Amino acid sequence: MNRSTDWEAANVTDGWHWHQPDGTATPATSPPSARPPVTPPAAGSPWWSDALGDPWRDPRAPAAVVLPPPRGMGAAPEPVTDPDATSRRGMTSVLAIAVFSALLAGMLGGALGYAFAVHEGVGGGTILGGNTGEAPSVAQRPPDSLAGVAERVAPSVVTVRAATSGGASIGSGFVATADGYVITNDHVVEGATGGATVVFNDGSTANGSIVGHDAESDIAVIKVSRPNLVPVEFGDSEAIAVGDPVLAFGSPLALANTVTAGIVSALDRTIQSGEPGGQVRYYAAIQTDAAVNQGNSGGPLVDGAGRVVGVNSVIKSLAADADQAGNIGLAFAIPINQAKRVAQDIIDTGKARRTIIGATVANTARNPGGGVRLSAVDAAGPAAAAGLRAGDVITKLDGRLLEEGTDLIALVRKYAPGSVVTVEYNRGSSKQTASVTLAADAK
Questions:
Q1: Contact, 389 vs 374, CB < 8 A?
Q2: Which residues are designated catalytic?
Q3: What's the average model confidence in pLDDT over 366-379?
Q4: Where are the extended beta strands (E) located within 274-371?
Q5: What pLDDT shows up at residue 152?
Q6: How far lies 257's CA from each of 87, 202, 223, in Å?
Q7: What is the dihedral angle through the alpha carbons of 439, 283, 200, 203, rounded to the nearest 10 degrees?
Q8: What is the CATH number of the domain that holds 302?
Q9: What is the pTM of this model?
Q10: From CA 416, how far away is CA 382, in angstroms rounded?
Q11: Domain hosting residue 199, numbered range
C-alpha cells in the first residue's frame, strides 16, 4: 500500500485510486477541485435523490478528508515563548528591590548610629548591653520592698564585740532607744571581762557598758553614748502568722551588715538551749527559714514593714560541735514582746523578772497520754490559787496544746507577770478549766 502526501494540495488520503461515476480514473494526487460538484437535494426530496453525487454509493470509491492548511506552510512561524521567562524576570526585579532596600536601610542605620554615638559622647567604641533607661537608686525603691526595708533598718543594726576570759565573743544587736540602749543576747556578752564594743553599719565604733543581762531569757542590754542614733520600730510578735515574710539582720560569721530573707515557719516552737552544766534556757520561739548563723545572735528579725518582731538567738544544726554549727534552714528568735519586756526590766531595775505558774512538772519528757503532769503545786502560787493540784494533767494553755514539760515552761516564760491565762486540764477522767494569774518569781 502506497501513501503519498502533497502538502501543497493540502490533502491527506489513504492511497486508494477512486473513479468518477462515469468510470474515469482519477489519481490520488488530483486536486479536489476536479471532483464534480455535489448538488444538495431539493427541499422535500428523499435522502437518496443525490445518490449520483454521493461518494459512498460505490464501495470502491475512496473517502477524502479535507483539512485546513498546516501552519508553517508558507506562513510565518508561531513565536515560541519560555513560560518561566516572566517568572524569572519578576524574581530578578524582587531581588533587586530587596538588595537595594537592604543597602539603603544599612546606610540609614549606620548614619543614625553614628549620630547617636556622637551625641552621647561615646565615639566609635564598642557599647555593651542595651539602654533600658537609668537604673533606679536605692532611694527610689518602694519603702515596703525588701531593699526598702533593709535600707531603713540597717542604720539601727550593730555588731557587738566583747572580750572574755576565753578570748572574744562576737554577735549582733540593735538600737532600742535614741539615747543609746542596745539590745542583744545574753550569751553574746556572757563572761565579758569589761564592757563591749559596738560597731555601727557605717563602720564607726563606740564603747558600751553592759547595763544588765538575764541568762534564762537570753536578753542583755548595752548602753552607748553617741548622738543621732536611729532606734528600730517595734512590732507585735503576737500579730504575726506562719508564712509572713521576715528579714534577719546581723553579722553572721563576722560578716557585718548582712541581711537574709525568709518566712515565719512556725510559732511558739519550744526550744531548750544552753551549754551542758550551764544555764538552761527555754523559748516559745518564732521559727524562721531565713539564713541565720553564728554571729547573728542578738540581731533583729523584722517583718515586711521593717518592724522588729524577734531577736535571733538559736540555730539548729546537724553538727555535734556548736563551733561547727551552720544554718540548715531552721533558726529561732525570741518573740519581741517578751524581749522588750525583759529589756525594759533591765533598764529600769538592772534585772529581769521571771514569770512563774507556781507548779513543778513531773518531767520535761513527753507524757505518754499527752499533756503535762504536775508533780507539785506551790500552796502560795498562782496554780494553787486557781484550784490546780498535784497529779493534774494540763493539756492546753491559752488554747495551745502541751505535749511535754518544756512546753509549759517555755509558754509561761513568754507571758508577763500578771497575765491571766486559761488552763485546760484533766483530773482523773474529768476535764476541767481554770483561769490562772501568772506571777513574778520572788528572786
A1: yes
A2: 187, 218, 297
A3: 86
A4: 281-288, 300-303, 307-315, 331-335, 355-356, 359-361
A5: 95
A6: 74, 9, 21
A7: 160
A8: 2.40.10.10
A9: 0.69
A10: 14
A11: 146-224
